Structures are given as C-alpha cells and as structure tokens.
Amino acid sequence: MALYVQKYGGTSVGSVERIQAVAEKVKGFRQQGHDVVVVVSAMSGETNRLIALAQDMQTQPDPREMDALVSTGEQVTIALLCMALKKIGVDARSYTGAQVRVLTDKYHTKARIQDIETERVRTDLDQGRVVVVAGFQGVDTDGNITTLGRGGSDTTGVALAAALKADECQIYTDVDGVYTTDPRVVEGARRLEKITFEEMLEMASLGSKVLQIRAVEFAGKYKVPLRVLSSFKDGPGTLITIEDDEAVEKPVISGIAFNRDEAKLTVMGVPDIPGVASRILGPISRANIEVDMIVQNIAADHTTDFTFTVHRNDYDKAQGVLQQVVKELGARESVGNNKIAKVSIVGVGMRSHAGVASKMFDALAAENINIQMISTSEIKVSVVIAEKYLELAVRALHSAFDLDASDTVSE
Ligand code: ADP
Ligand code: ASP
Ligand code: MG
C-alpha cells in the first residue's frame, strides 16, 4: 500500500465529466488499497478569466486582492471533486491552502511555500478518506491568501508529497509525459521514459511549461519521486530521476525547450569604461525587472553595444528605464525588439561531447535562421532568433539531434 499525491491540471478538471473521470481514477487507486491526496488546479481557462476580470477593473490591481480573486478557481474544483467522489462511494474532504495551512512568504502572486502542516491531512487519511487540496494557493503568517505563480499547483503537489513523504508525486496532465519537445509543436516529438531533475529544471526554466520550475526545484531538493502522466489515457508517463551512471549512455541532447515570452533591448554606442554594465542593469533591477541573457561587445571605435533580454511583459517598462540611462551614459541610443524567441537544447550528455553547439548552429544555418544571441551552460545551449522562425528552428534541431520518433537514439 502506497501513498500517492496526485495533481490534476486545468484540462484534467475542465468540465463536470472530466472531474467525474478523475474521481473514477482516484477510486481505482483506493480500491487497490493506496492512500491518495489529490491536488487540483482551477478548471481550464478559469484563472485567465479571473485575471481578465481584474484587469477590466483596474490596470494594476492590488496583488493582495489579486490573490484573493485568483485563488477562488481552485476552491471550486476541490468542492466539485469531493462531490464527485462521494457520489461514487469514496469518502473525501476538501481543503483550501489556508485550511491545510500551506504556509508561504508574503510575496503576493509569486509566493514561496515555507512549510506545510500535515496533521489534518494525516488524520483524514487515517480515517480512510481521500484528501483534496486546492493547488496554487497558501496563506502567510498574517492569514492573507497568497498564490504561487502561474502553474503553481504543480508545486503544491510536490511540496505536499515532500511533507507527507509520499511514495510518488504524480502530475496528471493533458500529455502522457515529458517529451523531447512540446508535442503540440513537433508532431514527431517522443515521450521520454526518464529525465534527470537537472535536465527537467533546465527544460522548465527555458520554457517547457509542462512542470512549474519551482516544482522541479522542490522535488530535486527533497528527493520526491516525480512522474508526469496523462489523466486521459493509461501509461507509464515520464519519471524524473536523480542523475545516475546511466547518464553515461544518455543521448547528447534530451530535449528542446523554447520560450516566446522574452524581448531584447540594446543600448548602442556606450562609452567603453568600467562600470557601464552596472549603470545599465542597476536601474533595470531597481525597476524590479529580471534580466535573462546578456551580451556585450566592444567595437573598433571603443564604444560597446550592450544587449540583454527581459520578460516581454516588462519590455515597455525597460525601454522607459533605458531612455534615462542613455542620457546619463552619453550613449548613442537604445533599441528593442519584442518579436524574438529563445530556443534551447538541453542534455546532461553534452558534458562529455564536443561540438554540440556547432551542430546546433549548422542546423540553424541550413534553414537560413539568423542567430541574434547565444548563451551556454554545462548542459544547455540557448539562442535568440526571430520569433517567426521559432517552429522551423525547433523542428530542424529536433531532427538534427536525432530526436524524431522514427529515429534511433544517437550516442
Ligand atoms: P496542466 O494544466 O495539466 O498543468 P500545462 O498546460 O501546464 O498542463 O502543461 C502541459 C502542456 O505542456 C502540454 O499540453 C504541452 O503542450 C506543454 N509542453 C511544453 N513542453 C513540453 C514537453 N517537453 N513535454 C510535454 N509537454 C510539454
Ligand atoms: N490555476 C493556476 C494557473 O492557471 C495554477 C495551475 O493551474 O497550476 O496558473
Ligand atoms: Mg501546468
């Protein structure tokens, strides 16, 4: 008999029928003698609907009230799922984040979980109940409702699994596992049997939204066995594993991630003197804008062009900040582009193979795709390209690295 924490995402609870199907699935686990804690998202589209409502009310709503609003989506699904379970003879009880006491810090709309009380959950499990917990939400020490950022129900699931020392945290979604790349973009994408935490963390950070980044961080830190599966069809899914000796035989590239959420800004003709980077990025960081990639290049005339990327939502704000910076630095001008995309190849096998980046650049060159920026780490290479070439680039790289479903896995 095992203890499973099962998280069902928005599409998996998107209608009364889908919620009933989840209830049947949970009943199946109970009949096999397992204990089950379920974490649910809001019904698909509901969180977006609530955010749009808020924006109709006010351009920049108070984050505290935003959390009070968007957390309601999950409260609906916990209650409906418990009703569905009871209807088919499974005893169940619903809890909001605050009722469990998913304690978070005070950063509204992007709070981090600090502690989870497990007493009530354990008591219910001991009494033979299924416990249904609202994902994505918590409460701070002053009793304010907080939320964990988009996709945050994954993190609730993993954190609860860690706190309860569950045998496995199962993330049920609308695809049957983690694929070599988003299967909605590349038809030939392949499901991975396993992927390491390290690779999954890169994939999630670089844009693969199948798991929230923090959920992967949490699972890695607390060694929570984590599996991504489909709620629509049976199958083994993908196991996220701790890196082991098998890594030696792993393919060079495990997956391709991409992200359309970035924008690029360049300050041109900056005098080449010490302190410039800090005088450009200092005001950006003080405006609470996160910077991702950075490139600086000295030209023959002893000026530099300084380029960096930010989240697309911060593009206008960053442009405003740079106008002032240009004046203060005596730079020529600042320019920007928000029609860019970042494509990344990820794989722990890269560590022991040379020439991975050049193979990537060859594949992009063969499609006439211009690379605007490059960044590398031990297990990834990322490039910024024009957004209109994104899908072409992902497909070309998927084939170049032999990831297509019809290919055999290369060394
Ligand atoms: P949920 O609502 O269940 O949390 P999400 O929409 O957050 O589901 O995540 C599942 C989606 O992630 C899939 O529908 C798929 O389009 C996308 N996705 C992106 N990259 C990958 C990948 N490498 N493998 C699988 N799915 C991916
Ligand atoms: N409902 C929230 C969202 O749409 C949290 C989640 O689904 O994980 O982002
Ligand atoms: Mg999700």
TrEMBL record:
PROSITE patterns: ACT (PS51671), ASPARTOKINASE (PS00324). Its EC number is 2.7.2.4. Substrate binds at residues 47, 74. It comes from the Bacteria. Gene3D superfamilies: Acetylglutamate kinase-like, VC0802-like. Belongs to the aspartokinase family. This is Aspartokinase. It comes from Marinobacterium marinum.
